[in-house]
């Protein structure tokens, strides 16, 4: 079986790691797969032994992008060069993300020529990336080719459901293909790790870099309600646009003398393994994820996980034996903690108008109503869907109300989990998300593609159906607007 794997680049990062894990899994499982990885930049690593650089495949704006037919020809020639013949399957990552419209159209050209392909979106231009979406304007009607020899994969059930609705009536199936979770290094549980004087006691560690969707305000809320615990995220932002907000949260926490540190790694000489070993528990309060590694990896560290759940991402995990019942789906705050309900509704309206305009879409008449009421539950509003000014106002109110603090504590259920649950979840992750399991799943998908036999006519799905699902006002989160 000869596979041409395609991505814009092979720089260190999420998709590159997925590709490296894939080839490692095949090798460890002894599967007879010959693969070449095609990218727009030279591969800086040493794990992939067969790579080809394809000029014009790297990130490009519409004005910079090369002729798609030329790119399609170059991809085919590079694949033949790396494999000795035409590939049996093209495995293409993020073709419709909007990072290079020529790749999107080149994929359409290859699809029309009868090539068998597995389209593997990790992220979507339709999901809060309006600039990417606009870059696809000319090629968007051909962004999602379909046919019995064109299959799709999704990282989670949410994306799979959205893709299935778009592809309904087509011959293209959508497979669920969660990423592998390679074994983690052993984290010391020795007393030496616990006695690190640089690190706070009773630490609940949120091991993420600071970006807006990580919902840093919820750390301050939890710290206000749990004075006996200490909360910290690990890293500051690399995006300069988020730095002012990050610094604002640091100043805000200091002004209320909260037991929280933003960017803990920047205040200590302790290594990441030392921080994990020292922590009482790992915490997650993110409001948006793709695969959801943060819900699986902590168990492999030998640590429990507390905090916010994302059911549309994690429902797959629960079905595979990873119990997340201790997490909360919704963090209710009484509506009277909001300084101005009318002001909040105006903020929601402004965000929706800006968001829909950025996608060149018409705003539904009842969009504001849908968005506001989707945030409510029993006359309370979900803290994690509010913008930073409203979050800070709520925390100030919480800081003076012991009754409200107790309510928050009871709802969140933050606790150090027993070793039995940690061990069971660790074993489930090791079994269901191992490299070996991943290798088996992906080979099964490839085989289903090859079993299709003769190709069918290529048609194109209506991407508007996918966009409408991601744009739904009921999905609005004010931490995911600009």
Structure description:
The two termini are 45 Å apart. The protein has 482 residues and is α/β, with parallel strands linked by helices. The longest helix is centred in the last third of the chain and has 18 residues, at 341-358. The chain is globular, with a radius of gyration of 24 Å. It has three domains: 2-180 and 434-472, Glycogen Phosphorylase B (Rossmann fold); 183-328 and 415-433, 3-Layer(aba) Sandwich (Rossmann fold), CATH 3.40.50; 331-412, no CATH class. Helix content is 40%, strand content 13%. The model has no long low-confidence stretch (mean pLDDT 94). Strand 15 (376-377) and strand 16 form a beta hairpin.
- The CATH topology annotation of the largest domain reads as Rossmann fold
Oligomer: single chain
Class computed from helices, strands and strand pairing: alpha/beta
Helix count?
18
How many strand units?
17
> Distance between the terminal alpha carbons, to the nearest Å?
45 Å
Named CATH architecture of the largest domain? 3-Layer(aba) Sandwich
Estimated radius of gyration: 24 Å
* Proportion in β-strands: 5-15%
Instruction: State the name of the first-level CATH class of the largest domain.
Output: Alpha Beta
| Overall pLDDT score | 94
Helix content: 40-55%
Which secondary structure elements does this structure contain, and how are they paired or packed?
Blueprint: E1 2-6, H1 14-29, E2 34-39, E3 51-53, H2 68-83, E4 89-93, H3 101-112, E5 117-120, H4 130-135, E6 145-146, E7 150-154, H5 157-167, E8 174-176, H6 191-194, E9 203-209, H7 217-225, E10 230-235, H8 243-255, E11 260-261, H9 272-278, E12 281-284, H10 297-300, E13 305-307, H11 311-319, E14 332-334, H12 341-358, H13 367-374, E15 376-377, E16 380-382, H14 388-399, H15 402-412, H16 419-432, H17 435-450, E17 459-460, H18 463-471
Parallel strand pairs: 1-2, 1-4, 2-3, 4-5, 5-7, 7-8, 9-10, 9-12, 10-11, 12-13
Antiparallel strand pairs: 6-17, 14-16, 15-16
Helix pairs in contact: 1-17, 2-3, 5-18, 7-14, 12-13
